[in-house]
Amino acid sequence: MDDVTKHNSPQTGIWITYGIGVYDITSFVPKHPGSDKVMLAAGSAIDPFWHIYQQHNTKEVLKLLETFRIGNLKEDDVIGTKDLDNPWATEPKRHPILKAATQRPFNAEPPASVLVDSFLTPNEFFYVRNHLPVPEVNIEEYELEIDVELNDKSKRLSFEELKKLPKHTVTATIMCGGNRRGEMMEIKPIKGLPWGPSAVGNAEWSGVRLVDLLKEMGVESDETSHVHFEGLDTDPTHTPYAASIPLSKAMDPRGDVILAYEMNGQPLNRDHGYPLRAIVPGVVGSRNVKWLGRIVVSKDESDSHWQQNDYKSFSPSTDWDTVDFKRAPAIQNMPITSAICTPANGDRLEAKDGYITVKGYAWSGGGQAIIRVDLSVDGGNSWIVADLDQVEQGTGRGRHWSWSLWTAKIPVKRGQKIEIWSKAVDDNYNAQPETFKNIWNLRGVVGNAYSRVKVEVK
Ligand code: MTE
Q1: CB–CB of 215/183 below 8 Å?
Q2: Does 32 participate in catalysis according to the annotation?
Q3: N or C terminus of the chain with fewer C-beta within 10 Å?
Q4: Of 241, 311, 361, 450, which is the active-site residue?
Q5: Range(s) for CATH 3.10.120.10 in the chain?
Q6: Using a 6 Å cutoff on CB, does residue 135 contact ligand 1?
Q7: Mean pLDDT lowest for which of 27-31, 363-367, 403-407?
Q8: pTM listed for this prediction
């Protein structure tokens, strides 16, 4: 079969190849969660994309693909696959405590019980969420590019130059937008990683204040512009991971946005964005761009896949046939949530003096403080108020960027089987919704319903 590209006109449909197979995927493209990504491969081999997006390498996906087969390539036209493993050759070593949902790209979370051991999550135990291979950065050659489209100013800063600027430290929790998706999936299947409650961590981040850099370049805050962050990790078409935040958040000295080169006093490690990442306190993890290569100040939001066609939430009744990603805003501030980290679901516990101890975290995006965590073991008929292990002071009102860890003692009887619920409340008196059923969404994001854990007392 000759050049497939020319067959990809609207009249003849969308063709791709995989191995020697040629497939007409026209009818499937609108149903694919990342249809814009599929179109990048239109008219050519999908193999290099699937080497990066390895979630496709399952029997189910291959079976589905076969239903679209329309022929085979001539042997000479098949793209060799021997070099395709290269993007993964230099992945860093990870601590075995991290339970991997996928190896390539690496996505992993620690056991929930580890989270409540310390207010600051140790770097090696901090969840990792990568969409692409981890880039290798030569620090001698590294430069951060800043382009201000609003005034046509540009600047390049070496790592040395960045480190000479005033250093600021912010303690902030980062949470993946898909944290707790696994619980939401129990309601109805979702395409996405089945995260438990540990796609979250709290750390002390040090680096340069973004507002200082932008002010230096003559940027003034406005209510409509955006700041794009582009990573050095790229897909097979050399498109970087990217996301954006409102300029007003970046320019607000009380927004505490920093370009961090240290995490808990250590240089950032490779998985968490070495040498530089954006820390956008209170905002969904996906905007905290790692391996930062370029910043753009623009009138428009980032057009990246992750800003436009992912990390958005919809009504529980919206499905892949009806979804219109343009109709929902990109998630920025995260909603209030809490999770029971210990005991774990299904545990059989020994009571001490008639009590069991329950521990967890609570966090609210946008800088809201956690004021209370309520627990119930009788389906909400009565509630026990947990002790907050530390009162998170933050850096001021509306600047409570860290989680609150909490502990509660619950009276129990021997042999009793209970379901423990947790529900947090923030200083706007926002509380978690009761069920995942009512907040289910097709991307499985912002899953913040009550945390529920079933245990038996021995
Ligand atoms: N930045 C780049 N360049 N590439 C990525 O894949 N993942 C984002 C964000 N920044 C990502 C990125 C997502 S979805 C999350 S939740 C956080 O990084 C995770 O940060 P961590 O891996 O340091 O925990």
Answers
A1: no
A2: yes
A3: C
A4: 311
A5: 5-77
A6: no
A7: 27-31
A8: 0.87
